[in-house]
Design goal:
The structure holds two protein chains of two kinds. By secondary structure, chain A is an alpha/beta fold. Chain A has eleven helices and twelve strands. The radius of gyration of chain A is 19 Å and the shape is globular. By secondary structure, chain B is of the alpha/beta class. In chain B, the strands form two sheets. In chain B, strands 3-2-4-7-1-8-11-10-9 form a nine-stranded mixed β-sheet. Chain B has a two-stranded antiparallel ribbon with strand order 5-6. In chain B, strand 10 and strand 11 form a beta hairpin. In chain B, helix 3 packs across helix 13. The mean pLDDT of chain B is 95. Classes of the chains: A alpha/beta, B alpha/beta. At the A-B interface, helix 3, strand 3, helix 4, strand 8 and helix 9 of A face helix 2, strand 3, helix 3, strand 8 and helix 9 of B.
Chain lengths: 339, 387
């Protein structure tokens, strides 16, 4: 019998275009206080802390070491960090709780995309010998994927526009001009700064801390080849495999929070994850409404959990992605206790 | 539910050198991974997940390089995690991989850490630009030299101790074919005559910049039973962190290091580390950190660590050998340096350490630290299963 582990609290910043006036620690601290307040826990009550961030966004080495000041790591804490989206920090914390070495975990991540030109910065993720020297930016790569989908008859520009409009709701300013054909402004994520945090707890501890814990029934992540030329960009075998391992296909989900920064990527993920129109997709607005890089995946897990906490979902899928054109994908299934 | 015991059944590393211009980053990591698989007599298909670590991405100029390295490490279609906890990362990466086995999430995990320092300049990569830091410090030596000076003043250690550590570790390195520095003509006088870089740290008491990778195959009981060579069993492992700078921080003997060691000893049932642990592979980037960590880790009372070094206790044939591989002082691919320490501990208890083998090593501590002496990771491995 393995331990049951749940997301018991979630908090996030009011994601904004730019938080130039705040350091990363100043941006993060209110979120850490909020998430702790929701459970009544203090830093000293947390058995394990894990974070996710990227030095390349901050423009300095070891940027996460200063964020630790926001946690208040004194007396010393059991702590780790992944140079990945916070969704993978949550995964590491979930593993730690599964070992039985910890009963509670604080997971956080943050990203300030605005200090540098994000489209250029993200090119540094690519093969450093054969691809990065060409500086192919993230929107252009996503546009390749979108065009492949259109060529395969999987979608068209009006359908993509509908994804953008649904995600942004009343805030939608229309599709706008092409950024990189066939993607228009409305198909692309906003660039912004933000942070998110969740608290995990095991077994009875979770029930003490939350009226309706969001139990992690399964969580898995898979990576694909890096070279775009060897991948079928119209599909996501890694997302499908992660979903299968997480148990997504055992029973239908009612809600899905997908980390699809581009409208076209929602099309790929819906197909890979077998989501039909009965599933509420991205009621939060998804990454098309707010995309704090390195935190946007953790936000999906947090948003899905929060809906379960509020009784608005009984079984939700949460997804996070990393790398160009959905190279790496994480899928979790969250459930509330029967009502 | 008890944890699954974790065994090290494969260890592989590259020959650490100043610049591996013959291979790409992918070629470098694959070489170490292949050697670890060969040691375990396994193949890529036997691996369930890959956990990779390295120090700041600026050292190679590749953001989140694990994305590009997925193919080289046979990770396509598998889970791949990337850990980064500053200098302790090599150790932390191994511990994250071990927790996947301990939690029974996976049966067999490949873990790897690397740095290809020749792709950039680590000293300036570490020297943060304004406004993050005042423009006074250049490289890690400038940060740590005052802490060494504080130790000397606090302990009353004679200023000759640092050179003894460097002389010992560089001689140990001559027995390790993978070590970067092989100074066949090393003498104590040469160490003592080397230029002063960051007073009191001399050139010969400083780690080199290296290109290198280290990999291990970790597995469960069933995997260990199939292993062709004796496994190393994990008896305890822990990480601890504290803030970089704060009023009251003990930079000489940080509380996080003490707490981390205490947690490992508790898990392993160690009550007297000096007597119960046979050897220590610790992270000593500047010679003086040997006596400092001997105290921090509980092998000597406060102020007494330098006496062990001076008496030859930490020599390869001493009562408590330290840095049998030659240590960080002889090879420093930064992101991999912690994992090399953990791997050396495993090699020792497996009896696979070759010329730098400590006879009868049954329990060995691997140690790593990073940041401003604020991130610690350690594991204790043994020749027998935990129990």
């Amino acid at each position: 019998m393995t331990r049951e582990i749940a997301v018991v609290a979630f908090a996030q910043t009011d994601h904004r275009r730019s938080m130039t006036e705040l350091s990363e620690v100043e941006m993060l601290m209110p979120v850490l206080h909020q998430v702790l307040d929701r459970t009544g826990l203090k830093t000293a009550d947390i058995d394990f802390t894990c974070s996710g961030s990227s030095d390349y966004l901050a423009g300095r080495a070891f940027s996460f070491t200063l964020a630790l000041d926001g946690v208040g790591a004194w007396p010393p804490i059991s702590e780790s960090h992944v140079e990945m989206d916070g969704a993978w920090a949550l995964y590491e914390a979930w593993v730690k709780l599964r070992t039985g070495d910890a009963d509670t975990a604080l997971v956080y991540s943050y990203g300030k995309s605005t200090p540098g030109p994000l489209r250029d910065v993200l090119t540094r993720q690519l093969d450093p010998y054969y691809v990065a020297p060409l500086w192919p930016d993230s929107v252009s790569l996503a546009a390749l994927q979108a065009q492949a989908l259109i060529d395969a008859g999987e979608t068209d520009e009006p359908a993509l526009a509908a994804v953008g409009a649904r995600s942004r709701g009343a805030d939608s300013e229309g599709q706008g001009d092409y950024v990189v054909r066939p993607l228009r402004r409305g198909d692309c994520p906003p660039v912004g700064d933000g942070a998110a945090a969740v608290i995990l707890a095991a077994g009875e501890r979770a029930r003490e801390l939350c009226a309706r814990p969001a139990w992690i029934r399964g969580i898995d992540h898979r990576i694909e080849a890096h070279a775009l030329g060897v991948r079928d960009l119209t599909d996501s075998p890694s997302a499908r495999l992660a979903a299968e391992k997480a148990g997504v296909f055992e029973r239908p989900v009612d809600t899905a929070e997908l980390h699809a920064p581009f409208s076209s990527q929602e099309v790929v993920l819906r197909k890979a994850l077998g989501l039909d129109d009965s599933v509420r997709v991205n009621p939060s607005g998804g990454a098309l409404a707010a995309n704090p890089v390195m935190a946007a995946g953790l936000v999906r897990l947090g948003e899905a959990a929060a809906r379960i906490h509020r009784g608005e979902s009984d079984r939700a899928l949460a997804h996070a992605t990393s790398g160009p054109c959905l190279q790496q994908n994480l899928v979790a299934v969250l459930e509330g206790d029967p009502r | 539910m008890s944890k699954e015991p974790v065994a090290v059944v494969g260890v592989g590393q590259t020959k650490h050198v100043a610049a591996r211009r013959d291979v790409s980053i992918a070629g470098l990591v694959r070489e170490a991974a292949r050697r670890a698989l060969d040691d375990a007599e396994l193949d890529w298909a036997d691996i369930d997940a890959v956990v990779i670590g390295k120090a700041p991405d600026f050292f190679e100029g590749v953001m989140m390089p694990e994305l590009y390295l997925a193919d080289a490490l046979g990770a396509v279609g598998k889970p791949m995690l990337r850990v980064h906890t500053a200098g302790s990362v090599g150790g932390s990466t191994a511990l994250v991989a071990a927790s996947l086995v301990a939690a029974r999430v996976h049966g067999t995990v490949l873990t790897l850490a690397f740095e290809k320092q020749s792709e950039s300049n680590a000293m300036w990569g570490l020297s943060l630009p304004i406004p993050f830091q005042q423009p006074l410090l250049a490289g890690a030596g400038g940060f740590f030299a005052p802490h060494v000076r504080a130790y000397m003043r606090r302990s009353g250690a004679p200023d000759t101790v640092g050179s003894l550590v460097a002389y010992k570790n560089r001689r140990n390195a001559l027995k390790n074919p993978y070590a970067h520095l092989h100074e066949h003509d090393i003498t104590l006088e040469k160490v003592q005559a080397s230029p002063m870089l960051w007073d009191p740290i001399r050139y010969s008491e400083t780690c080199p910049s290296s290109d290198g990778a280290c990999a291990m195959v970790l597995t469960d009981r069933a995997g260990a039973a199939r292993a062709p060579r004796p496994p190393a069993w994990m008896h305890g492992g822990a990480m601890r962190s504290e803030p970089t700078l704060f009023a009251g921080k003990d930079c000489v003997s940080p509380q996080a290091g003490k707490d981390c060691a205490a947690d490992v000893y508790r898990q392993a049932g160690i009550t007297d580390p000096r007597r119960e642990i046979d050897a220590v592979e610790m992270y000593v980037p500047f010679s003086w950190y040997e006596p400092m960590w001997l105290e921090n880790l509980g092998f000597a009372d406060e102020g007494e660590g330098w006496k062990l070094t001076e008496a030859g206790v930490t020599e390869l044939d001493g009562d408590l050998p330290v840095d049998m591989s030659g240590g960080v002082l002889s090879s420093n691919p930064i992101g991999a340096s912690g994992m090399i320490r953990f791997a050396e501990a495993a090699l020792q208890v497996r009896g696979q350490a070759g010329e730098h083998q400590v006879d009868g090593a049954r329990r060995v501590l691997g140690h790593a630290y990073g940041g401003g002496s604020q991130f610690f990771s350690m594991w204790l491995v043994g020749s027998e299963p935990p129990g």
